[in-house]
Amino acid sequence: HVQLVESGGGSVQAGGSLRLSCTASADTTSFNCMGWFRQAPGKEREVVAVRDSEGNFNYADSVKDRFTISQDNGKKTLYLQMNGLTPEDTAMYYCAARMEYCRGLLSGPVYWVYWGQGTQVTVS
Questions:
Q1: What DSSP string describes 84-106?
Q2: Is there a contact between 20 and 120 (Cβ–Cβ < 8 Å)?
């Protein structure tokens, strides 16, 4: 049974930074794709960043040049470094993973199999 556990959320002022972590119960090299999504109240879940099967890091336009996704396989952990936060970044952030191949920004939540419980990010 695969589990993903996010941490690192919190409240921060505009312009600040946070680093989210997603620790997996399984070897992260077993996941072809790992990514971060977010969902604000009243809005659909949207993709933020994806590490695809080619080893590329892909970003939504809204976070390019501000957010960085990275992975430490030894720690079975996926990270999301978020800089230059704005109130529009306020949302619940979710880690997601899938065993199947993916390339680019796989934006549809329906294509992802494993999900964490989410960590709240609030920017004021």
A1: S--GGG-EEEEEEEESS---S--
A2: no
